[in-house]
Amino acid sequence: MSAGKELFSTKLRELEQEHERIRSRLRLCQLADRHQVRQELDCLTREIDETDAALQMAADTSHSPAVAALSAVQLEYQQRMEAILREKLPRYLHCAATDTASDRAEAAALYAEYAMDFAAQAMRRALQSALAAVELQLDLEETEAAAT
Length: 148
What we know:
Blueprint: H1 2-31, H2 34-61, H3 65-93, H4 101-147
Helix pairs in contact: 2-3, 3-4
């Protein structure tokens, strides 16, 4: 089981590093001027585009049907959420058919809160998946030990 435990340890470190990186960037941007925020947003957008391209490649070319399916679903989710943010969310917030800067700002804040909630739920699901994998590996090891 050491390989599985090490895999999860590595992924956990990656998750912790990314979490700290996000927190740090958000803290800095809350104190930054508009130009600095725009630069950070552009940089992050490039990072997201690179990740999306890797997901698209996995969805299109992976030898594993599971990896391809999971990558495709993640991309679809992101595209649908972005469409709601751009096209529908401001209208959902106000009955009038206006699209003011205030509506867009409120919609973006709501989307950000939702995305953070979704990220927390994704972390819980990741933990659930890891624990299930560990449990199955322990069951396998018990079965193999009993057979010998």
